[in-house]
């Protein structure tokens, strides 16, 4: 069984919506290296339709991207959870029509499945108890408004399995969900 890993850039107060507090290179070269290590361990990228369409409109055109994100996204198997998307227009991409297909994907052979961004999908994955691990790049910002990683009513008991602090002030915290213990 494959792990479904939610990787998010997040503020100290838990906001994950993009805004002025975040830029892809803001964490410095050490954060980029941590991202590259994570990309090397994942052969599937899971996203919702809106985030997919935003990324599809940006990343394929980044031919001089020194971060490696563009090269990774252009070659990795992408899975888009959508009831409306018909033609992804960015290969290799598979459209999943719901969370049951995400459950089936987790049962296939392969490496990690990573979900980044896609707040609505992330909330659905949390509520459906499909997330195995959270990798949170915590940026030293407080924005005091915006959508948070965990929706109200989604109590989680997590185990810290890794922590790294970077010279930029960003911290990477890795948590595993405790099996069958999401609300106790």
UniProtKB/TrEMBL annotation:
Transmembrane regions listed in the UniProt entry: none
Source species: Kribbella rubisoli
GO molecular function, one term: 5-amino-6-(5-phosphoribosylamino)uracil reductase activity
PANTHER family with a match to the protein in the record: 2,5-DIAMINO-6-RIBOSYLAMINO-4(3H)-PYRIMIDINONE 5'-PHOSPHATE REDUCTASE, DIHYDROFOLATE REDUCTASE FAMILY PROTEIN (AFU_ORTHOLOGUE AFUA_8G06820)
Pfam families: RibD_C (PF01872)
GO terms, biological process: riboflavin biosynthetic process
Protein name, entry field: Dihydrofolate reductase
Domain Bacterial bifunctional deaminase-reductase C-terminal: 4-171
InterPro entries recorded: DHFR-like_dom_sf, RibDG_C, Riboflavin_Biosynth_HTPR
